[in-house]
Every structure is written in structure tokens, then in C-alpha cells.
Amino acid sequence: MRGGLQLRLFVSYLAVIGTAVAALWLVLQWTAPVAFEYHMGAMMGAGRGMGRMMAAVMTDAMNEALRELFFRGLRSALGWAVLAAVLTAVGLAYVVSRRITSPIRAVVAGTRRVAQGRYDQRIQVNGPEELAELAKGFNQMAEALAAAESRRLALIGDVAHELKTPLTTIEGYMEGLLDGVTEPSSQTYALVAREASRLRRLVEDLEELSRAEGGRLSLEPRPVPLAGAVKAATARLESQYQAKEVSLAVNLPRDLPRVWADEDRIAQVLTNLLGNALQYTPAGGRVSVTATHAGGHVEVAVSDTGEGIAAEHLPHLFERFYRVDKSRARASGGSGVGLTIARSLVEAHGGRIWAESAGPGQGSTFRFTLPTARP
User: Fold this and answer.
1) Which has the closest alpha carbon to 370: 317, 272, 300?
2) d(CA 194, CA 175)
3) Would you say 276 and 241 are in contact if contact means Cβ atoms under 8 Å apart?
4) Which of 49, 183, 244, 271 places its Cα 20 to 30 Å from the Cα of 33?
5) Strands, DSSP E only, in the chain?
6) Stated pTM of the model
7) Which residues fall within 8 angstroms of residue 257, CB to CB, at 6 or more apart?
8) What torsion do the CA atoms of 237, 169, 160, 316 make, to the nearest 10 degrees?
9) Using one digit for the tens of pLDDT, what is the confidence trace for 50-106?
10) Which residues of 146-165 are buried (b: 16+ CB within 10 A; e: fewer)?
11) In whole angstroms, what is the distance from residue 184 CA to residue 189 CA?
């Protein structure tokens, strides 16, 4: 038998058994004589003639001998019964203590392996409901750690890949300039400056993403009209929409209630969504911003008539560095974290965000909710 919890449980069961046996013995010692005298007196008085005859025949010595024989038989029977009960209870105590502690030992062993980096560790527990819940919680923790580790490795690889492309371009042109292969010109300098700006935007996006996923976003929520955030976002991208010849329409109800939000942060969310819609909407297309009020929240929708999104991509759109069309997004300079930041900002306000699309070529709609401000 192993020490620790199982031994303590087993000893506690033995203590309970010993206490029960001692209590049984003391109660027997106190109550048996009284019960014997009572029942003997009842038997003597059961029949008058028979009672007098037995009282005349039985002497004090015979009465004492009968009393001794009765208690000897009682103690003998009780002793064997107690012995059988104790042996049975000890066996059951061992089985029960082992059944309780075995799953706990399995969880302890699993946590040690997880601590060593083996996040694929899972345990199976067939026992009481509480222990099964403990095993289930452990497995969920292991799955979460495995997913976090996978995301960490993917993040390292994605960041390295994103940094590699502009750095390689800058390095190539600088080597060409140093070797005299590339002619110094305003176009060359502009290209190097563009790649450096791309690196700066990526670093800024990563800093924002780190704050978002670490729960360190600074928010100053207050009752604000949604129209203000929409106007700020559309103003930032108006020139880009005009340059690409994509129309931008805003349709907000006049009776739309105020939302409880940080206006600048919501404008940032809308800028990300409008920029994403512009990127995937061809010239002559249309992007619209609408809003509806339902219950205690306002739902905002950014719809486009662009390329659309296949169903298998919809659940992954808000994952960091996820791209439906990797080559096109990279060529356009997107960092791949804009939607991730947008999701973190919306969730920090107590809302949720999701994407809808009927499929490729059918356009797409990004929706998010915000809580309404209390009167």
C-alpha cells in the first residue's frame, strides 16, 4: 500500500471501525445485564404457578451460573461477529481508499508530464462524479495548453515569415546600391522606404495585438452615438475608396440609441473592417455600413459585394495571421492581425463579432454587437 492520501484514508476508516466496535462493546456491557434481569423477571412472572416453581427451584448459584453462561455465549457470538465485520470493513476500506486515490495519482502524474511539456497528455477516470469532473477539467486544461503552445509556435513562425519578406527586399536593394548594381534613384529609395514602413506597421500591429490578447487594452467607455465612430472611420478611408472606385454607403437609423463604448476604439474596429472590405472588393463594387437595435445591444454590419469567403474559412478569419488569399494579402501589405485586434476590441466592450458569406463571388458581411448605454 502506498503512503500519502491512501494511507490516511485507510487509517481514518480503521479509526471509524475501531470507534464503532468500542461503542458497541460499551453499550453491550451497560445494557446487557439490565436487559437480562428484565427478561428473566418477565419470564418468572409470565405464569404464576410456573413462576413460583422456577423461583423455588433456582438458587442464587444457579442464577449466577445461568447469567455467566448467557454472557459468555453472547460475548463469543459477538466477538466472532465483530471479527467478521472488522475484516470485511478493512477490506472495503482498502478498496474504497484505493479507488478514490488512484484517479488522483493519475491526475498528479499527468500534471507532472504536462509540466515537462508533454501537452498531449490525457487521463481517463472511471469513478465518482467529482473525480470524473476532475479528470475532465485536467484534460480541458491540457487541451488549452496544447492549443496555446501551438499558437505560440505558429506566431513565432508567422512573425519570422512576415519580417523576412521586407527585410530581404531592403537587404537586396542595399547590397545592390553598395555594389553599384542598382542605380540610386528616387524610385529605389521610395521602395526601400515603403518596405521599412511596412515593417513599422507590422511592429505596431504586433504591439497592439499583444496588448489586446493580454487584456491590457486601454478603454474609456461612455455613452456615445455610433454615428460619430462611423464618421471617423469613413473619413479615414474615403480617399482610398474613391481611388479604387468603390462606393461606400452609410445607413444608420435616426432613432438608434447610444452605445456604451470607447468611440476611438470602435472607430478602429470599423476602420479595420472597412479596410478589409475595400481590399477584397473590386472596382465598381459597393460597401455599406448599417446598424440595428435589438434588446440591450446594437448590431453593426459592414457588407461588401466583393469576392466572398468560402465556408471553411469563416471560423478562422479572426485568428492571427490567417489569410484566405495569402499571396494577395501579403502583396497588399496586410499584417494579418487586423481582424484579431478588432475581435479583441469588440469583446473588451462586452460584444461579439462574426463573419457571414454565401460563398466565393457572393460578397461578405462582418457583424459585431455593442451594449447600449443606460439612460
Assistant:
1) 300
2) 17
3) no
4) 49
5) 222-224, 247-251, 259-261, 286-294, 297-304, 353-356, 364-371
6) 0.57
7) 293, 298, 372, 373
8) 40
9) 545 555 455 566 666 766 766 776 667 777 777 777 777 777 777 777 777 777 777
10) beeeeeeeebeebbeebeee
11) 7
